[in-house]
Design brief:
By secondary structure, the chain is mostly helical. Helix content is about 45%, strand content about 0%. About 0% of the residues are buried.
Length: about 50
């Protein structure tokens, strides 16, 4: 059985939109199989006061 919302802007629609936006963002930032970020040394991320 499939339910169709009777009004716009329901909680479920907002969650669905948020999940789609998060997936798009993830697809833009890291591709499947990228391993370079795991190979970085922790010292790369340390910021020093200048």
């Amino acid at each position: 059985m499939v339910y169709r919302p009777l009004c716009k802007g329901t909680f479920e629609e907002r969650i669905d939109e948020m999940l789609k936006a998060k997936k798009e963002l993830a697809d833009m930032t890291v591709d499947t199989g990228e391993t370079w970020i795991g190979e970085l040394s922790h010292t790369v991320f340390i910021c020093k006061n200048i």
